[in-house]
DNA sequence: CGCGCGGTTGACAATGATCAAAAAAGGTGG
DNA sequence: CCACCTTTTTTGATCATTGTCAACCGCGCG
């Protein structure tokens, strides 16, 4: 999915506040990583908090992996710039998600983590990761869990990209995004996308024009109400149906993919989806 | 990428040897996880070793995540079965790679790990993961590193699937596969694919017919010698060129993608590729 | 020997990438 | 507040790529 139009890699001229030790952020960090029991016991290592504004990066592809980051507020995209300058979005991260853990393997970050808006992140020095379990067992456990979640998301990402139809890809993306919103306690129906069409396109492995088209297609069928980056899910059942991407039967050949997806999805799937509870 | 032809999920009738504690496997496990310094210090937790033959699974999607697995020998595929029965291959794992770590997040495995041939794996009980750092620091560190590697691979996977041209996808897959072979000390030029065309297709998000076509295409151009699952890389430079998937310029429109990829790749990229050393 | 399976190849329709341009949104300065 | 610029998004038109269907081949196995 190379698009030469995208050939100007972002220049990181934006302001990056120098990281500072922040005692008050201790409990926060643990809570952010959604460890249920965040005991405020004293730890010898108050976390670093980094503040960046839109377009700035907390770590760079190829740079020594000195820390792993946890999103505290805002949103990030993790990208790799390919040889021809195309910016491949590998993942999106919001509150509670880990970025840069993949840098531990070789000691170099393999992605650049760029803020999509004014954001903050915790920085966990990789040096201190070895001793973390003894110094702060709860955090260690929470971090493990968060990394596991990254792997889950990676699998889902593959699942999104691998889908045949472009509407299916977008539908899966939206379902995923809505679930994440629900997990953060936000509305799973009224979504505010933190990223542009081009970034969604790069993430899903398609042309940005096709992303746009898929949005309008779903909107035309009454599944979504799209207002730029504000997306409202009008018909969750249809969206899920579309995300399931069932192949058309031979006899249904003439019909439209989206129309076909309108038939109700499996009840089991629906029940476990937060959208349906709302 | 749904293919109804693939709608018969594997029946797991194959033999699975009951796991057994194996004292002798202690050092092995550490070495397998490629920790440089594997001290043979006594640990209170001799690893479990599981033996499976082709088609059998070490863990199932949806089952309680009681252990994380590390491949000791052989090869595995990690799959998710979608609602319509299509088997999506999420990852391939060979010696030293971690499977099922994504199960920690929810306590349930999200993939089924199926052996592609007669294989063995270590099972690390998730219960013991909390105390692992104190009981066996080296292993903990090695495991962290291996998990990090999984994340790196996940990013590369996305990179493979997201590529536009089918030959590019396959080329990236082969480059990745060759690098892994090299890391395991095997030849990076003579590859034995452990998986079938259909599994490659599912992994790369394309139709199996297209995978087959891409193989023959690369073979016709002298890049590969393909004999079923035995693939020899005849022209590494061309393969890398193809994997870089540079878009054709406007004037080169008439030429064939593979032919265009024949031009030499960036020296920096080549130097760091194990193929070129051989 | 026939059967089934995995792989290859052919033909065809259609999806989506690409090129291109218009329209909308956001930001800046008068 | 409006004109003006840039960026993002939408929409249009065209054509190659690839998914789909289907036939065929080679191989191992019962």
Notes on the protein architecture:
Two copies of one chain form a homodimer. With 278 residues, chain A is α+β, with helices and mostly antiparallel strands. The first copy, chain A, is built from ten helices and twelve strands. Chain A has helices at 25-32, 132-135, 137-162, 166-183, 197-204, 208-220, 236-244, 257-261, 267-271, 274-277, and strands at residues 20-21, 48-52, 57-59, 67-73, 75-81, 87-94, 98-99, 112-115, 119-125, 190-192, 224-227, 230-233. A five-stranded antiparallel sheet of chain A has the order 1-2-9-4-7. In chain A, a hairpin with a 5-residue loop joins β5 (75-81) and β6. In chain A, α3 runs antiparallel to α4, α4 packs across α7 and α5 (197-204) crosses α6 (208-220). The longest helix of chain A is centred in the middle third of the chain and has 26 residues, at 137-162. The first copy, chain A, is globular, with a radius of gyration of 20 Å. The two termini of chain A are 36 Å apart. Chains A and B meet through β6 and α3 of A and β6 and α3 of B. Chain A binds a DNA duplex (30 and 30 nucleotides) through residues 1, 3, 164-166, 196-198, 206-213, 215-216, 228, 247, 250.
């Amino acid at each position: 999915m190379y698009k030469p139009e995208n050939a100007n890699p972002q220049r990181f001229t934006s302001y990056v506040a120098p990281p500072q030790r922040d005692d008050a952020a201790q409990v926060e960090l643990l809570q952010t990583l959604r460890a249920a029991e965040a005991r405020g016991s004293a730890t010898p290592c108050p976390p670093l908090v980094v503040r960046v504004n839109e377009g700035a990066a907390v770590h760079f592809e190829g740079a020594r992996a000195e820390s792993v980051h946890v999103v505290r507020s805002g949103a990030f995209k993790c990208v790799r710039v390919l040889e021809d300058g195309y910016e491949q979005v590998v993942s999106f991260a919001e509150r509670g998600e880990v970025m840069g853990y993949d840098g531990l393997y070789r000691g170099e970050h393999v992605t650049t983590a760029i803020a999509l808006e004014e954001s903050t992140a915790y920085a966990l020095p990789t040096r201190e990761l070895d001793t973390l379990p003894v110094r702060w067992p709860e955090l260690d456990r929470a971090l493990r869990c968060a990394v596991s979640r990254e792997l889950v998301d990676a699998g889902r990402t593959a699942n999104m990209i691998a889908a045949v139809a472009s509407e299916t890809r977008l539908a899966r993306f939206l379902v995923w995004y809505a679930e994440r919103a629900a997990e953060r306690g936000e509305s799973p129906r009224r979504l505010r996308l933190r990223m542009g069409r081009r970034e969604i396109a790069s993430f899903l492995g398609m042309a940005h024009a096709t992303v746009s088209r898929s949005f309008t297609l779903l909107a035309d069928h009454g599944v979504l109400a799209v207002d730029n980056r504000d997306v409202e899910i009008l018909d969750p059942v249809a969206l899920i149906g579309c995300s399931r991407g069932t192949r058309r039967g031979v006899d249904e050949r003439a019909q439209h993919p989206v129309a076909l997806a309108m038939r109700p999805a499996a009840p089991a799937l629906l029940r476990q989806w937060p959208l349906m509870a709302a």
